[in-house]
Amino acid sequence: MKKKIDLTEHCVSSATLADGNMLTAKRDTVRLPDGSESYREYVLHPGAVVIVALLPNGHLVLERQFRYPLHQTFIELPAGKIDPNEDVLVTGKRELLEETGYIADDWVKLGIQHPCIGYSNEVIHIYLATGLTAGQHALDDGEFLEVFDVSFDACLEMVLSGEITDSKTITALFLAEKYLAQQHG
Amino acid sequence: MKKKIDLTEHCVSSATLADGNMLTAKRDTVRLPDGSESYREYVLHPGAVVIVALLPNGHLVLERQFRYPLHQTFIELPAGKIDPNEDVLVTGKRELLEETGYIADDWVKLGIQHPCIGYSNEVIHIYLATGLTAGQHALDDGEFLEVFDVSFDACLEMVLSGEITDSKTITALFLAEKYLAQQHG
Questions:
Q1: CB spacing of A65 vs B7 below 8 angstroms
Q2: B50-73 confidence digits (pLDDT tens)
Q3: Are the CB atoms for B61 and B49 separated by under 8 Å?
Q4: ipTM for the complex shown
Q5: B118, A21 in Cβ contact below 8 A?
């Protein structure tokens, strides 16, 4: 690897492009590495947690959910936004319970991912949850989804066949597969 | 898997929340599956291409690039937006050349990914490019990045260590690893 050069872009000024109920967009004037000025537009996001929930029989808990921006139903791992000042592990436990009804005894942090570095500051924390027991889910208002489970191998096959295309889900599966192979290998 | 229920959300009306130079945000009124109305806010994106460029020595071509929304330098695979009416393979060849200076003889489509299904309609097409020859790169105005290469294994290790956290890169590596294992195995 070559010597690292300083690629930093510095904020000159920041303006709000849009302030929606769910989505805030910013437009910042920045100073580029060569001293010139440009603009950067991006979305503010509170961060999220995605959960690889592994049942005692080796199946993964998945969701089918309609995602309006793409007018399409997606198969995804359980995930949700971090509430203000909420600890990320608390978010993980809360979202897994709300969306799927499961409670997990054991939580391992597998890492983080950045889904959209070009135009969002979102970071997604990735957890592996095991020791699951089924309870009662409680969806947010306006949230509709279907919960099901498939074997880990079937889930990987759904990625290869293109049935699963959600990047946060594939990235979390990548880390979980390597982690579990290391644990069992 | 249970019987699939209809989770579709229907557009009632659509408004533009923000119309920036790079980023357009929409706010749609939607009818939910239970008949009630709600809002969905999201970003319009032209789509993109990410390239797993494999050198004759087995190394992958990577980039270091500063990403302003996160105020952080990221290690990523070469990628770029689709120009209006551009064929996605043409985008892949153009972006690989512009950003890294490489030309590839062989292109295989590995699939697609959706990086941000909650608030963007972006789709990223994933290509494996081999038969590389080095040329001269030509960055867009205001684009600053550093190109380097590492072995495939070292690249996977950078994912596991958390040095690579970009979801599009990890998702593309996941598909490339499986594809190459199948080819050689």
A1: yes
A2: 999 999 999 999 999 999 999 999
A3: no
A4: 0.95
A5: no
